[in-house]
Structures are given as C-alpha cells and as structure tokens.
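Forwarding the complex inputs:
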Amino acid sequence: MKNIVKIALGILTSVGGFLEIGSISTSLQAGAKFRFQLIWAIVLGTICLSFLIEMSGRLAAVSRHTLTDAIREHFGIHFHLVPLTAQVLLDTLVLLAEIGGVSLALQLATGISFQAWAVPVGFAVWLLLWKGTFSLIENGVALLGLVTLAFIAGAVKLHPAVSDVLKGAVPSMPSDDLAQYAFLAVSIIGATVSPYLVSFYSSGAVEEKWDEKSIGANRIVAIFGMGFGASISIAVLVCSALVFHPKGILLDRFDPAGLVLTPMFPKWGFTLFVASVAIGSFGAALEIALDVSYIISQAFGWKWGEDQKPHESARFALVYTLLIPICSAVIAFGADPLKITMLSMALTVVVLPFVVFPMMVILNDDRYMKEHTNGRISNFAVAAILILGFVLAIAAIPVQLLGGS
Amino acid sequence: MSMRNCSWLSAFLLALLFACASPQKKTAKALESGSSWAAASAMCVEQRAVGSLPDRYAEKFFDDALKEISNAAKTARKSSDVDARMLEETRETIGAAKRAVKGRDAEGERSSIAKLKDLSRKLDDRSKALGQS
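Prediction (whole assembly, two chains):
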C-alpha cells in the first residue's frame, strides 16, 4: 500500500512539475507556426527523458550515489569540471528563464512590467529554499502545478482530429521556414530533457534514502509520470495549433499567449493560463536553484541536503543564496525572458551529450550498478536521440540566430 | 588548419551571412509580424468584449502591439513605402481599437475587429508574396 501511494505521488508530482516556461513557450510557438507538425519532438524528448530519469533513479537506488558523486568518483575532479561547468552555466541560463517566466506571468496578471517582478520572485524562491524542506518543494509546488491539466481540458474541448494529431508524432518536412522548424524542434527537445531534471532526481532519491526495493516504483514513475507530463505539453501545442494557427498569430512575444485558453474557458481561461505559467516556472526555479547547489556541493565534497538547516550545510545554502539574486538582477535589468528561454532550451541540446555520456559510462559499470547495469536498448535509444538532437542543434542555432530562412 | 584559424573563418562566414540577409526578406518578416499582431489584437478585442480578459492585460497588450508594429514599419520603410504604409495603417487601427476598448465603445470595437482582420490578411498575403519572390 505504501508503495502504491509512493508511485501515485511520484506520478502526480511528475505531471504537475512537467510544464514550465520552456515547455510552454516552445509548445505554443510550435503549434502557432507549424500546427501539429512538431509533436514528434515532444515525443522524442520524453522517451529520452524517461530513460534518463529511470537511469538516475536506479543509480541512486542501487549505489546510493547521486549522479554527480558517481561521475566525480569515477572520472576524477579534473575531468568532472567539464560537465560540471557546462551544467552550471546551462542551469543558470534556465534559472534566468524560469524567474523570467514567473515574472512574465505576473506581468500578464497585473500589467506591471516583468522587470519589476524579478527581484520579488527571486526573493520568494530563495525564502522557500531557505525555510522549506525537500518534500515541500518536490511535492507541494508540483501538486499545485496540476492546474496545468487545464490545457488537456482545453485541447479536448477543441475536438482536434485525432488522425492529424497522430500524424504530428511522425517527423515531416515543413512547407516553409525550415530553419525555424529545426530550431523549434531542438528547443522542444531541450525544454523536455533539461539536465537539471536528471541530477535533481538522483539527488532527491538519495535525500529520500532509496534502496534496491525502489527500482520498480522508480521505473513506473519514470514511464508514466513523464508520459502523462508530456501529454500536457502536447495539449499546449494542440491548443495553440487550433487557436492561433488558423488566425496567423505567431508568438514571437509572450503577450498573445494569454489568449490561448480564453476561447475554451471564457471565464477562467486567462487565470488558468497565468497560474499555469507562474506555478510551473516557480517550481522549476526552485528545483534548478537547488540543483546547482546539489551538483556544486557534491562535486567538491561539501555537506549538502535541503532537509538540513542552512547553518548545517552552509556552503550548500550559500550557492543558491548567491545564484538567485544574480539571475533576478539580470531579468530586472531588462533581459528578454522569452529570448533567453528559447536560446537556453536550444543550447541544452548542445550541452546534453557532455553531461549524459559520463552518466552512461557509470550506468554500464557493474561496480556501481551490480546486476542492474543498462540494457542495450536504453543505451542505444539515449545515444541516438542525443546525437540526433546535437546535430540538429549545431545546424539550426546559427541559422536561426541570423534570422532564419 | 589550426583551431584559431577555424574560429576566424567561422566568425567571418557568420558575419558574411548576416550582411547578406536581403532587405526584402527582412521586410517579409516585418509584414509577417505585423499580420500576427493585427490578428492577435482583433482576438484581444473580441475576448475583452466578452469579459474574458482583465483591462490591465488588454492595455499592456495594445501598448506592446503598437511598439512592435512601429518597429516593423521602420524595418519595412527601408525597402518599400507601400509596405510601411500598410503597417502604419495597422498601427493606427490598433490605436483605435485600444481607445474603443478603454471607452467601452461597442461599435468602435466591432469596426476595429473587422478592419484588423482584413489588414492581417493583406499583410500576410504581401509577406508570402515577398517571401516567394
């Protein structure tokens, strides 16, 4: 019974925590510009994420190591500095985007510029990390994030042709603007497979003292939690495709996004959208700030843990205490959150192989994994998706930055 | 070829690509953006009229739309006065829509919606024509 509750809670929090500013903006832009044609990118990203989440949970359950711990121990700190630096820089960029996301939601709700919201939002994130516990952050905010299920209800109310939606799950060439199509595909994969999710998940598993009995529950949560979560991303894309695409509305700025749910829910649509963006991005900001503290503390062997009082793991708390104000200040000085979001999601795909390949080595090492090493299918699936994403990203990012074609 | 030479060559190629982006293509993008803002503004007026959107959102929305359309018109002016005028007309219509929404002028809202939808279509057609030529 206890296991069933654990699995149910794991799935619910995965679903509630799936959407954030990255997945919302990339899905909205994809639906508005290319209708259902980019659903395949969400599917591909989710398959990759499910494998990675399952692997990092299994590593924690079998070896009692977090991902960062294991990589540092196996490769040494000198090698580890490369993926560590890449991930810290990327996490910082994504944290900027998430603080910007909450600020944009508050701008929609109040009409007051997002720049004015960046510092209060940063303070709220810091305060919750300083005072809160791991389970409050993981479960509390993610359960509030279930408000994002409004997108599923919205998509159902729009009655999309199921065959058209299914066709979108198969890659196809766009009729025009190939560069933007490829860039959006890369950004969607990046928004779905953020490295912080993987390292955060393994740190959480160690904080919650998982053991080998948790492997089954971990697998179910990884498959169903991520699968149901992805269905919300697909629902965002479907809503955008049916509301914005026929009218020719593009989403190169965030303002029109506030209209996406109002045709289906005239009374509550706007509020549901604002709440979805604000809660989703706030939850992600908490997890990313915590993740940077986790990976830096674990890499340098400092004491770490969100369930400890800040004075018990002072350097761990110091990392997020320094990082959050820096990110808030960048947004407050006027950096465009939507541009940062799109760029950070695309760069994720470039950085991802450097973070994931050391992980694959560990997951195939029986000194850590005993009889639970990776199978061939998971090795092949993750490697193939990452290489495809990397090649797409290298080709699409420069062209898109130069204005597309 | 050394790493350093490679970096210089890539930087040069990127700069060359950027310099070669045709003004026509930039105008097509500006028109596409104008068409999108016109359509979104029409939707905003419609949704505001049925009480789905708060006033403060609508006000900020129109301010941003006006700013974006002005930028698009500035870009278009470099290559075509006709396209720039069409974007100017869109800007004026969004301004009128903003005033109608603020003054709760139902007739003004209706006429703005119709005009914005028409302008959105025209801008889109022109953008596609430029993009194909």
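Chain B touches chain A at residues 14, 17-18, 21, 25-26, 29, 32-33, 35-36, 39-40, 42-44, 47, 50-54, 56-57, 59-61, 64-65, 68, 120, 124, 131 (CB under 8 Å).
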